Amino acid sequence: MKMKLEEARSIINQIANKTFGTLIPEEYFADIITNKGKAGQILEKIILHLNLSSSLRDFEDGELKTNKCNSLGRPLETMAITQISSNIDNLIQYQPFEQSSLALKIANFLYVPIVREGNPHDWFFMEPIHVDFLNDKYLDLWEQIKEDYYTICKKINDDINNSGRISTSNGKYIQIRTKDSKPYHSIFSQFYNQIISNKNYAFYFQKSFMQAITNN
Fold first, then answer.
1. Total domain count for the chain?
2. What range defines the domain where residue 52 resides?
3. Is 193 left (phi over 0), alpha (psi -120 to 50) or beta?
4. What's this model's pTM, rounded to 2 decimal places?
5. Can you tell me the distance from the alpha carbon of 76 to that of 116, in angstroms, rounded to the nearest whole number?
6. What is the CATH number of the domain that holds 95?
7. How far, in Å, CA of 123 to CA of 203, rounded?
8. In the chain, what is the greatest distance between 2 CA atoms, to the nearest angstrom?
9. Is-contact 79 204, C-beta < 8 A?
10. Could you report the per-residue pLDDT of 46-98, keeping only the tens digit for each?
11. Chain segment 144-163, per-residue pLDDT in tens
């Protein structure tokens, strides 16, 4: 049985603001600067003892998301959510947002800002923020993401009809853009019966979203 989100929240609160040098064995620092996802993997594997996998959610009842920020908690990067290749025709056909893999992925998640400034031994995890979109305080954000989702679905269709290929598409809080590494993975649409990108794409939270939940 997977760990529950609240259990993970309790563990992270206990180690929040403690430097990596006091938490992590020395061997894990070898490629921590060049491997941008290493700090998040350390949280999952070393701190929370989660099994890294491609399953929809990290916890039994939710998801874990980490992102680089400064010492004040201000986000410095966009945050990957989920790749779209396996769901591309659902997006093309305007699958209802509430049924989408995107909505299922983000409906209940723990956001952990990571301060990655200076020497990696001085980096640290900040206190986690629990984003539960069933909570009324997040209703406006949820409705905006829903609007963004349909905007992106329309942009995908417009791009394919105009050029045969999809491109970066932005809403207020989410976007899709390329997320792939060599060898690249093309995206084929059964609906259009053609390749619509030579690289995989993913949904991302824009920095404006992390700023909004930090301020909420």
1. 1
2. 5-215
3. left
4. 0.92
5. 10
6. 3.40.600.10
7. 27
8. 54
9. yes
10. 999 987 665 668 899 999 999 999 999 999 999 999 999 999 999 999 999 99
11. 999 999 999 999 999 999 99
Q: Which residue has the tokens 């920095």?
A: 207
How is residue 169 written in tokens? 């598409």
pLDDT at 139 over 80: yes
- What are the residues whose beta carbons fall under 8 Å from the beta carbon of 16, sequence distance 6 or more? 124, 125, 126, 127, 128
Token reading at 189: 């649409």
The arithmetic mean of pLDDT across residues 113-121, rounded, is 96
DSSP the chain: -PPPHHHHHHHHHHHTT-BHHHHS-GGGGTTTTT-TTHHHHHIIIIIS-PPP--SS-SBTTBEEEEEEE-TT--B-S-EEEEE-GGGHHHHHTT--GGGSHHHHHHSEEEEEEEE--SSGGG-EEPPPEEEETTSGGGHHHHHHHHHHHHHHHHHHHHHHHHHSS---EE-SSEEEEE---SSP--EEETTTTEEEESS-EEEEE-HHHHHHHHH-
CB 152, CB 175: distance < 8 Å: yes
